[in-house]
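Retry 2 of 3 after timeout on previous attempt. Resubmitting structure tokens to design endpoint.
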């Protein structure tokens, strides 16, 4: 497709075509894996747009164009992992700067901000971002970055992107949204005023649990330059094979997300009706706090469901987590296969227990990444595991 036509197309078409066109030298329909570290120059400084593969690689450039199109962004910048993408954003701050972040967020983001950047004099606070007055009160004169995650990890809380970006901008801070949980199919934060969208492409974008990657998308020229400078200077770049796998993943993103959403809705409804299950955290449940906001801000409710047992007993929760056959007990999310995770000991173990509890994260919370299998098999699996307690 011509890039002007792709720009006007829907998200499903963009997912398949944006950033890519048949290879001009061979006609290959799929973007080749340009497995090269360097590029020939015909005279010093005269080249075809690529000099050295840390700086750019054509497979990566195709992926960057694809992700940017999906996020309604001018620029996409790819990194070797989601954490490397977050690291690059935070590196643009300076000693004495302050970050205000969500208190219900990916554990590795907390660890990076506190344990890696804290000693360099970058302060961070973590607050409940569904409380807008609390967010305003927590802003400091030196707050330079507001870090938003929605839906949050692991409690799938939905927070108001536009209202939070307005608070950040009124204070002269940059607003960044980690959009890993929703994916651009369900939510495009730049359209709500965010300056930066950050992704762990390892999750829904890659979608097959076979590659680690990250990206930042932006319309802001200054941020684009700063991040590309860091790509070149710090070098946390994905290899061409990783970019190829991620591009292969995004082609089916829209149809995968549709199935993740319908399966998760059915799983959440099953759990909510189950006598042994207590609270179910899923934005698609009308009983869930963030439901109305999710309907406004998102185009679907996503594939992540969390829940606690009614008795909140750790032994019973362990029994459930050790006895599923379709759901695999593992970290990560967003792949075609269903995963089950225990945040307190797995993904969120690096957040001190007192802070986890203050954020409302129960030690017995079970998080599900609902895959694209037959929903009847997923529900039967959960049913038999719950019958063991
Ligand atoms: C996994 C994850 C990350 C980190 O990404 P990696 O690719 O594992 O480095 C960041 N944010 C969220 C919400 C995640 O789920």
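Retry 2 succeeded. Sequence:
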């Amino acid at each position: 497709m011509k890039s002007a036509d792709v720009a006007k197309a829907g998200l499903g078409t963009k997912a398949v075509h944006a950033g890519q066109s048949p290879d001009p030298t061979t006609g290959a329909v799929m973007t080749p894996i340009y497995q090269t570290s360097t590029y020939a120059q015909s005279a010093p400084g005269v080249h075809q747009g690529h000099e050295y593969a840390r700086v750019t690689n054509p497979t990566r450039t195709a992926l960057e164009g694809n992700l940017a199109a999906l996020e309604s962004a001018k620029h996409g910048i790819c990194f070797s992992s989601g954490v490397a993408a977050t690291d690059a954003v935070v590196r643009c701050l300076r000693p004495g700067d302050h970050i205000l972040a969500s208190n219900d967020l990916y554990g590795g983001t907390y660890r990076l901000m506190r344990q890696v950047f804290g000693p360099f004099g970058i302060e961070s606070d973590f607050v409940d971002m569904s409380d807008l007055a609390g967010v305003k009160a927590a802003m400091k004169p030196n707050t330079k970055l507001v870090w938003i995650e929605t839906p949050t990890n692991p409690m799938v809380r939905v927070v108001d992107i536009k209202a939070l970006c307005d608070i950040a901008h009124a204070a002269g801070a940059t607003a960044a949204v980690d959009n890993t949980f929703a994916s651009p199919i369900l939510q495009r934060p730049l359209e709500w005023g965010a300056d930066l969208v950050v992704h762990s492409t390892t999750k829904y974008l890659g979608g097959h649990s076979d590659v680690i990657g990250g990206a930042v998308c932006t319309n802001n020229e200054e941020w684009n330059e700063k991040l590309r400078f860091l790509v070149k200077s710090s070098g946390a770049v994905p290899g061409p094979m990783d970019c190829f796998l991620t591009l292969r993943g995004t082609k089916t993103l829209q149809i995968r997300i549709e199935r993740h959403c319908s399966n998760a809705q059915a799983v959440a409804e099953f759990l909510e009706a189950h006598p042994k299950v207590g609270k179910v955290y899923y934005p698609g449940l009308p009983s869930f706090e963030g439901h109305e906001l999710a309907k406004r801000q998102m185009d679907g409710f996503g594939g992540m469901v969390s829940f606690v047992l009614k008795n909140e007993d750790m032994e019973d929760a362990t029994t459930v987590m050790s006895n599923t056959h379709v759901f695999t007990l593992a970290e990560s999310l967003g792949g075609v296969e269903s995963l089950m995770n225990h945040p307190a000991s797995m993904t969120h173990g690096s957040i001190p227990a007192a802070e986890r509890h203050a954020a409302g994260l129960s030690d017995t919370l079970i998080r599900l990444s609902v895959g694209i299998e037959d929903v009847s098999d997923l529900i039967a699996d959960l049913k038999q595991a719950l019958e063991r307690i």
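Attempt log closed. The radius of gyration is 21 Å.
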